[in-house]
Amino acid sequence: MDKVMRMSSEKGVVIFTKSSCCLCYAVQILFRDLRVQPTIHEIDNDPDCREIEKALLRIGCSTAVPAVFVGGKLVGSTNEVMSLHLSGSLVPLIKPYQSLLY
């Protein structure tokens, strides 16, 4: 769990994904469309993949991936991110991490 907490705090927006996950890809595209360049951790390429998945679920993710962290705090998975976006609450949350040049 320490590894996940450390990795989730390295940058403003961090997404834990798997390379074969289509929902992970959709969440990544959403953030890029919102001018945020998230740090992506493809956990299926990490030797500690199983432990990372378990830690993400223990932290409170409804599914292990995608797991989105903003400012070191868990936002959630696809459902939570899309709900925030549709309600207009996602942009204010990520505003400090948006790029003007992106």
Automatic annotation (TrEMBL):
GO biological process, one term: cellular response to nitrogen starvation
Protein's UniProt keywords contain Cytoplasm: yes
Keywords of the record: Cytoplasm, Redox-active center
PROSITE patterns cross-referenced by the UniProt entry: GLUTAREDOXIN_2
CDD domains, sorted: GRX_GRXh_1_2_like (cd03419)
Compartments in which it is found: Cytoplasm
Keyword Transcription regulation annotated: no
Source organism, top-level taxon: Eukaryota
Gene3D superfamilies listed in its UniProt record: Glutaredoxin (3.40.30.10)
One of the record's GO cellular component terms: cytoplasm
Domain Glutaredoxin intervals: 13-75
Transmembrane segment boundaries: none
InterPro entries the UniProt entry points to: GlrX-like_pln_2, Glutaredoxin, Glutaredoxin_subgr, Thioredoxin-like_sf
Protein family (similarity comment): Belongs to the glutaredoxin family. CC-type subfamily.
The protein's name: Glutaredoxin domain-containing protein
The organism of origin for this protein: Eutrema salsugineum
